[in-house]
């Protein structure tokens, strides 16, 4: 990058002006804080290539995440699937995550900007929020590392969270690349819903401003399910800039090692999820306690670990659910599903859980809840059974129905598998995302040529 161009990029000020504007409004401070914007890179007008030429081009794609990568989790699996799929199509993909940066440099940056950010807010408002300071410091450190990288060679920027969408949005004032944003959670909306943010607080103003800026600074948003659409439109997104592409996975039962033994003569119910409050395990156990008359020939496998394990184990003991086993974190999910008869996920908050998609490919009868995008892939009484969230009585009735009716289990499982084969493969997901990349590049070239 030329020195003059780098200076333009490094002239961006901290904290981000739109975030300061949000806190100004909260505290009733008259705005007086402006940012020197980078000069947009001048592009030479070139002859307009055909869409076919764009489609044949091998792209360089930058994927960003605010969370460590590689790591365990649905977001990291999504990124890996997208990267691997795009590379199979001949594209080049790089992933930038916080753990990719030198730890010693990041530590120095955080120490420096923590002090400066606290001083800025205290001088401006007479106080500061520890949560806002923490997030500002993380944003600044991430952005400072990106500023020192030459990103000009990439064709596409694709942020996987609101944080890096904001960072790329600022940096992209210079680069002017097609910027995509894929939210993997309902952001401030969800945090308010679960009392993780106080309604009417300065933190709400701050994070809502971040949501809005991530939305409007992106050229296009790829959403994991339609449940995102009204929430994003409410903070500034335009319908035409939102495309729903369901998460696709690679799932293969053919190579299972068959080391997991299914209890002879028993029906196996499996729940695969982290042991967290919002996953609803306690409602599953309440439902099972109501089913004791139908519970003699049933084994329940709880797969996953988390902060609620001890509490849930105590609940199981109190309810005397002797057939429930906690299997912990496992790497043989396909095999466990192959030995199961019913998959249940009583979640109270989710977007599009990977475990449900895995159960669909494994051709299992599914019982889950009506939250997030789940009803978009599981049709009640057709490809699974849907229960209300936090409704143990309804969940118990649906479990009882499947335990007694093996024909219904088979029908639901077959329909779920058919839907997954058609809509939820990694190949299908990656191809649709590639088409959006190509469309945005074509639109950009057309604009440059005019």
What does this structure look like?
This protein folds into two domains: 3-249 and 428-449, Glycogen Phosphorylase B (Rossmann fold, 3-Layer(aba) Sandwich), CATH 3.40.50.2000; 267-424, Glycogen Phosphorylase B (Rossmann fold), CATH 3.40.50. It is globular and about 70 Å long. The protein contains 18 helices and twelve strands. α4 packs across α18 (426-449) and α7 packs across α9. β7 (267-272), α11 (281-289) and β8 form a beta-alpha-beta unit. The strands form two sheets. The protein has a six-stranded parallel sheet with strand order 2-1-3-4-5-6, with helices on both faces. It has a six-stranded parallel sheet with strand order 9-8-7-10-11-12, sandwiched between helices. 48% of the residues lie in helices and 12% in strands. With 450 residues, the protein is of the alpha/beta class.
Just give the CATH class of the largest domain.
Alpha Beta
Low-confidence segments, ≥5 residues, pLDDT <50? none
Rg, alpha carbons: 24 Å
The tally of beta strands, per DSSP, is 12
How far is the first residue's CA from the last residue's CA? Answer: 26 Å
How would you spell out the order of helices and strands? Answer: HHHEHEHHEHEHHEHEEHEHEHEHEHEHHH
* General shape: globular
Q: Number of domains in the coordinates?
A: 2
Structural category: alpha/beta
Strand content: 5-15%
Question: Strand order, biggest sheet?
Answer: 2-1-3-4-5-6
> Averaged pLDDT, please?
90
- Treating each run of at least 4 consecutive H or I residues as one helix, how many helices? 18
- For this structure, what is the CATH homologous superfamily of the largest domain? Glycogen Phosphorylase B
Looking at the overall shape, the CATH architecture of the largest domain is: 3-Layer(aba) Sandwich
CATH topology of the largest domain: Rossmann fold
The largest sheet, given as strand count, sense and whether it forms a barrel, is: 6 strands, parallel
Name the helicity range.
40-55%
């Amino acid at each position: 990058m030329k020195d003059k161009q780098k200076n333009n990029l490094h002239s961006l000020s901290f904290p981000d002006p739109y975030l300061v504007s949000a806190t100004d409004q909260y505290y009733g401070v008259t705005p007086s804080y402006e940012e020197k914007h980078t000069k947009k890179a001048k592009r030479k007008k070139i002859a307009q290539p055909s869409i076919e030429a764009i489609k044949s081009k091998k792209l360089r794609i930058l994927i960003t995440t605010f969370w460590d990568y590689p790591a365990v989790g649905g977001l990291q699996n999504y990124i890996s699937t997208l990267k691997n799929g795009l590379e199979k199509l001949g594209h080049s993909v790089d992933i930038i995550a916080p753990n990719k940066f030198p730890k010693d440099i990041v530590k120095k940056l955080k120490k420096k900007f923590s002090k400066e950010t606290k001083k800025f807010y205290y001088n401006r408002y007479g106080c500061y929020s520890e949560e806002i300071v923490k997030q500002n410091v993380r944003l600044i450190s991430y952005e400072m590392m990106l500023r020192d990288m030459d990103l000009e060679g990439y064709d596409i920027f694709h942020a996987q969270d609101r944080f890096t969408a904001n960072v790329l949005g600022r940096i992209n004032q210079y680069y002017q690349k097609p910027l995509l944003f894929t939210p993997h959670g309902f952001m401030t909306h969800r945090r308010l819903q679960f009392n993780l943010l106080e309604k009417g607080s300065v933190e709400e103003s701050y994070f809502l401003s971040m949501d809005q800026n991530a939305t409007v600074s992106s050229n296009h948003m790829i959403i994991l399910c339609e449940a995102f659409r009204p929430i994003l439109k409410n903070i500034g997104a335009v319908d035409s800039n939102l495309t729903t592409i369901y998460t696709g996975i690679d799932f293969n039962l053919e190579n299972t090692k068959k080391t997991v033994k299914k209890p002879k003569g028993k029906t196996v119910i499996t729940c695969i999820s982290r042991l967290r409050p919002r996953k609803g395990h306690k409602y599953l156990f309440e439902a099972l306690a109501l089913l004791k008359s139908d519970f003699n020939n049933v084994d329940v496998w709880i797969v996953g670990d988390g902060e609620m394990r001890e509490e849930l184990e105590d609940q199981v003991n109190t309810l005397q659910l002797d057939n429930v086993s906690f299997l912990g974190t496992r790497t043989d999910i396909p095999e466990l599903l192959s030995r199961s008869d019913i998959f249940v996920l009583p979640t109270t908050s989710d977007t599009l859980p990977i475990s449900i998609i895995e159960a669909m490919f494994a051709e299992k009868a599914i019982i889950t809840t009506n939250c997030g995008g789940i009803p978009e892939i599981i049709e009640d009484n057709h490809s699974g059974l849907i229960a209300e969230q936090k409704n143990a009585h309804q969940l118990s009735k649906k479990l009882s129905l499947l335990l007694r009716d093996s024909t219904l289990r088979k029908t639901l499982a077959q329909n779920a598998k058919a839907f997954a084969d058609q809509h939820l493969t990694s190949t299908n997901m990656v191809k649709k995302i590639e088409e959006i990349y190509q469309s945005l590049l074509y639109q950009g070239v057309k604009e440059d040529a005019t």
